[in-house]
Each structure stands twice: as structure tokens, then as C-alpha cells.
Amino acid sequence: MSALVPSPVRIIGTGLIGGSLGMALRRSGAEVQVEDVSPGTTALAVELGVGTATTAQDPAPALVVVAAPPDVTARIVADSLGRWPRALVTDVASVKQIVLEGVRHHADPEDLPRYIGAHPMAGREVSGVIAARGDLFQGRPFVVAPHEDTRPEAVSVLKGLAAEIGSVPVVMRPAAHDLAVAHVSHAPQVMSSLLATSLLAPDEAALGLAGQGLRDTTRIADSDPRLWVEILGANAAAVSTVLEEVRARLDDVLAALGTMPGDPDPSVGSRRALAELIADGNRGVRRIPGKHGGATDAFATLTVLVPDRPGELARLLTEIGEIGVNLEDLRLEHELGREVGLAHVAVDAAREDLLTRSLTERGWRVADA
Amino acid sequence: MSALVPSPVRIIGTGLIGGSLGMALRRSGAEVQVEDVSPGTTALAVELGVGTATTAQDPAPALVVVAAPPDVTARIVADSLGRWPRALVTDVASVKQIVLEGVRHHADPEDLPRYIGAHPMAGREVSGVIAARGDLFQGRPFVVAPHEDTRPEAVSVLKGLAAEIGSVPVVMRPAAHDLAVAHVSHAPQVMSSLLATSLLAPDEAALGLAGQGLRDTTRIADSDPRLWVEILGANAAAVSTVLEEVRARLDDVLAALGTMPGDPDPSVGSRRALAELIADGNRGVRRIPGKHGGATDAFATLTVLVPDRPGELARLLTEIGEIGVNLEDLRLEHELGREVGLAHVAVDAAREDLLTRSLTERGWRVADA
């Protein structure tokens, strides 16, 4: 038995998130019942170890987790509140205010204190229970989003659940959550997709000049249209707020560029607008927390030349291990038409000198970056 | 003596690019003379092995490479054409049309056939001769940008130089080059900076929800304002062309979002606009060539769970090597506050099944992605 999670837990909807949650909760000792609108999916979830199929004899759940698509979540939450009058009911939709409004609309007002929203901030490029993993939430933020009428103990229960599955609980109001994810997830998706859309125009020769910067900036543009229509539609107001600011700034940039039509001595004002864009961007990107929640500057990055043959990168990482330095991040730099790569190796800044010296002694070509 | 590069080469301006070029050319056997407007920088460049300091007794250069800041490049090219009446003169500024116009303005028209633009597509997060490396251009595109009056043999000389330093020569007209880099480099920089600028608004709790997508999308936002004001200003027309399209599409997105103010059943039209944005972005990002110039679809990505301890990633890569599969790309996924990581391993799509099976047999947790 889990000390922190009320049992049994009923999971409604066994896709990637519901499935992974079931696996994680079972690991922690909770009894998990699963149901999905598709009997085939339910059977597969049971087979994969997400939980047990439900029967008429099941004890009533103490906790219900609705992990259904966003557009049906509120109704299933309201149904669940009525179906199990003593259960706490939560949902894991990636937007929270619209679900809360739907629950308020559909549910008996007396049941509302037993509803609390949640958002485990995990996901993958793939979906479905087949991709579910019990460790999906490990080390990820788990947003607990109580509304004003939520029972206080519901917050404790969900924080306990988050801890039990290895997540980092973060308590936020639904509207604050929605604005936060608009900033860190939804607006970035739109910006990346907008930029990728502009790549439909240039010819192949132009795209042959692409470097790592373009690849990084557009990586998330390769995501599921169906999923993102749901997410953006359900968080339209918050996403618009962020994107309206971006458009205002883009207008400034276009105005500044418009005063520079090949003029070799552009006006001070236009140059300042561009410099401020880049400088403000510098400040913005430096606000993103680093890997283990620490500041990004705690790490130093070394660049190592790696022959692009099987085993060479492994040899580098083996030797870094032998030197006794832990890798905080690794990024490979692509090369066009050549069999050589650059490995950008991020390590604890305090170990940088040791690693540079040791790798150089071992014959690696290293440069600080 | 290099077979492909006329010698001596005079490099004017010894920053990152000029310095790296000198190192690379010397390796290939060319005699390299260096000069910089700063005597201290020249001395440092000589000390670092970029080339030899110039004297009054120097033989006239056969090739002059102007690697000065963009705003003074055209004038130095024009001066050089007059100073050495038999030399071929090139420049490595990252925009080409504005330099050509400046050279046309400042130079004797009879000298123009000896001028040809170039753009070695390499760079680092750091600048200055101290960061110079002879391998900076290895495997990178090297744009050779002749104008209509350039001598045909100048194109051959620069293609030979590009090959000599390990680059992949690409011949483009100056205007085509500028539009290409607006697409693959300058517009991505503006979009990344715009997005990063929007991160100045949210509070720390919101930024704590950031994942890898935001990190990738904003990585290049951490770049030098001074440098980028020069680049964007010098390529204002082409960058505006790309960004105007982006703004038009952003307006469509905002209009679509505006018709979805929390409405659980948004209109078909709005949903379609969002779905098309993401779908067009999918198509755009898939046009970016892969690592060795091949199409991205030739690779498959596996996701492997890796304990975040020294040696574990190395062990994974060693075993991938043992299985006999070459790694095409590797990306590590960060976790907040937890010692576990996901390695996204890209391999030849034809080897995907073998690798998945073999790694699973060896006890690794693998999921397709």
C-alpha cells in the first residue's frame, strides 16, 4: 500500500498519460482500476500492467483520475463526482481553466469541493498506451491546480501522489497554470510552427545552408496537428495574450528593418530596436531554469571533435566517465557531407578545467565554448 | 604548398573567422600573411599560428580575404583591389548583396572582375581570434557568391579553397545567398529572440514548468546583440520578406484563437487554421536536410532510458557500437530535480528494428518515438 495515495484509484482514459500514471501508481503500491471508452484499449492497458479491469464488485474508488481527451474531460469529471459521492476527482488535461468552467457547468455545486485539477508536465512525441511508461513523470513538474472551493486536503493528496510517482509538485491556480503553459509550451509551439512554415518557400539549395540553430528552433514543429488544435483551442485566451505581445514586438522589428533598406549607415533608432530585441532575448532565455532546477551558469560547455564512426562517441563518454566527471548535457553538432562531428559536453563548471586537461592529455581535440 | 589555394594569402581582420581561416589554410600548406586594425590582435593571431605578420618586403598576395566587420568590409575590399592590382579579393561577411553594392560604389570598375564574395557558414557562440580553430569549417557549407562581372576562374579558386579547408562549396548569387540565410539563419534568430523576450513576463513558478521544447526553441536567443544588429541591418530586405510572411500567418493564428474564447465547440474554420499551421510546420521542418545532407526521414529515433550516472550513457553508446549501428544523432532530455535521463538516439531507419530488439535484449528500456 502506498502511504501517500488513497486507494483504489480509478483511471478513466488509458492513453499515454493515464497509462503511465497507472503504471507509476501501481509501482508505489496503489490499487489501480482502469476504464477506457474503447474496450480494446482497456484490455491492452490491463495487459501492459496499467491496472485491473473494472467489475461490478469493485470497491468504490477513493480517487478518480480523468485522463480523457480535453474536450470530454469536464463532462467525465462531473459524471464521476456524481457516480462516486465520496471520491476525490481530478483530471490531467493540459489546460485547466476551461475544464474547471465545464465542471462548474455540468456538476452538482455540492460536489465541487471534491474536484481538483492537475497537470503532470510530461509528454512524448508519441501517444497511446503502448508508449506509456511508469517513469514518465519522474523529475517532471506536476501542477496541482485547486479552485477556490477545493477542499484543502485534496491539495495534500495530490501533492502526495505527485511525490509518490517521482514528480515535483507545484501548486497553481487554474488561470495561472494556463498562462504559464501558454508561455513555456503553447506559444513556443506556435512560434516554432510559424518558423517551420516559412521553410516551405526556399529552394533546396537554400535549405542546404541550414545549421544547428534552425534545427533546434524548429524541432517541436514536428508535432501532432490534432493534439495541438485541441490544446491551443482550449487555451486560446492565454496563448493570444502571449502572442499579441510577440506580434507587437515583431511589428517593431519590421519597422526597424524597414528603415534599413540597404542603407549602410542606418539610423540609431532602428539599430537600437534590433539591439534591444536581441538583448531582451538574452535576458529572457537566461531566466529558464537549468537541468536539475539549478541556474544554467552552473555548467560549462566543452566542445570536442569526434570522428563520426561507431564507437568514437562512446569512447569519449567512457573516458569522461573514467575521468570521473558527470555529464550534464550532450549535444551533437551536425556536419554536412563530412564524417566528423562536434560534441558539446556540458559539465559542472567546477570540473571544466580538469576535464579539458584530462581529455587533451588523452588526445582529444577540445575547445571551450 | 597547397595545390588548390593561390599563395600568399593575405587575411585582413583576424577575428574568429579570419583566424580560423588562416589556421586552416596554413595546414593546407598556404603561406598566410595577417593584418588587423588592432596591432594587439595581429600579434595574438601570429602567436596563435594564424599567419605571419606583414612587412614591407612581403611578396604581394595572390588572394586577399577580407574578414573584417560587415560595415567596413566593402571599403577594405575596394582598397585591396587598388592596393594589389593582380590579386583576387574576397570577403567572408555573412551578407553578400550589400557588400557587393558597396564594392561597386567604392572600387574602380575595372577591378570588379577580381572581386568575388564568399560566406563560410561556420560560427560559434564565442568570438575573437582566441576562439579560432583550424577545423571550424570542416563539413560546413562554404558559399561562393560571384557577381555578374566576376572572372570565371575566381569561382574555381574559391571552390578549391573551400575544398582545401574541408568545407562543401555551394555557388550562389549574392541576392540568392541573402534570401537563403534570411530563411535558415536570420529569421530563426529573430523568432527565437522574440520568443525569449516573451519570457521576461512570467514569474519564476511559471518558468519552472519549462521543458526541453522551450530550451531548444530559445537556445540561439542567447547571442550577441552587437553582431546581430549588423547582420539584420545588412540583410534587412530579405529578413523583412520572410518575417512579413510569418506575421501574416501569425495574424491568421490570432484571428483563429480570437474566435475560441473558451468556447468548448469552436468553429470548424478556426480549428482548420490551427491544424494547417501545425501541419504546414510539419512539412516545413521535414524539408531541412539531415546530418549528411540526406533527408530526415531516412532516420528513425529511439528513446532509451538512461540512469544519470557517469558511464551509463557511455555504456549505452558502447553497446550501440557493439550492435554495429552508427549513431546519426543523439539528444539528451533533461529532467527537473531527478537523476534519470532519456536519450533520443537517431539511426538509419533500416537498422531501427535491429537496434530496438538488441538493446531490449541487453536490458535497456526502449520506446519508439
Automatic annotation (TrEMBL), chains A, B:
Pathway: Amino-acid biosynthesis; L-tyrosine biosynthesis; (4-hydroxyphenyl)pyruvate from prephenate (NAD(+) route): step 1/1. Signal peptide: none annotated. Residues 7-291 form the Prephenate/arogenate dehydrogenase domain. Keywords: Amino-acid biosynthesis, Aromatic amino acid biosynthesis, NAD, Oxidoreductase, Tyrosine biosynthesis. One of its GO terms (molecular function) is prephenate dehydrogenase (NAD+) activity. PROSITE patterns: ACT, PDH_ADH. It comes from the Bacteria. It is an enzyme of class 1 (oxidoreductase). It catalyses: prephenate + NAD(+) = 3-(4-hydroxyphenyl)pyruvate + CO2 + NADH. Its EC number is 1.3.1.12. PANTHER family: PREPHENATE DEHYDROGENASE, PREPHENATE DEHYDROGENASE [NADP(+)]. This is Prephenate dehydrogenase. It comes from Brachybacterium fresconis. The lineage of its organism: Bacteria, Bacillati, Actinomycetota, Actinomycetes, Micrococcales.
